[in-house]
Amino acid sequence: xxxxxxxxxxxxxxxxxxxxxxxxxxxxxxxxxxxxxxxxxxxxxxxxxxxxxxxxxxxxxxxxxxxxxxxxxxxxxxxxxxxxxxxxxxxxxxxxxxxxxxxxxxxxxxxxxxxxxxxxxxxxxxxxxxxxxxxxxxxxxxxxxxxxxxxxxxxxxxxxxxx
Length: 163
Ligand code: FES
Ligand code: FES
Prior knowledge:
By secondary structure, the protein is α+β, with helices and mostly antiparallel strands. 34% of the residues lie in helices and 17% in strands. The chain has six helices and five strands. β1 (10-17) and β2 (20-27) form a beta hairpin. 39% of the residues are buried. One FE2/S2 (inorganic) cluster is lined by residues 47-50, 52-57, 67, 69.
């Protein structure tokens, strides 16, 4: 069997996605972003650059903000993956979703899920970040609509709301 055939072979991947255990057949070379969008149906995860440079695909892996285009799905065996779809609870928006909406942190919205997940990763490890810490945490996320001031303001506003 040649190398390409070996990489295309499927295996069973078990992981927790947004609080629910899943088992799916994936190829060894499938990226996490493609698994989340194409198999799990979580299209809030966006594909932008596909090379780790734009942050649109950011998800939390075991609570840490990570570009899902840089991670193979099979490397997430047994781990907890969270996407923007998993944030709202009991029919209520998550505080970051609420403040991005209220403070106009989203324009076209393409970068918004990645921005929110990067911000959520920050707020979990640092509940009261400074402006500088917010900007640093979001520095890997690009916005084509250049809405950075409103984005940072949205995160600042979320800090004031109890999680
Ligand atoms: S699509 Fe992953 S960083 Fe751009
Ligand atoms: S709101 Fe359009 S890319 Fe950021």
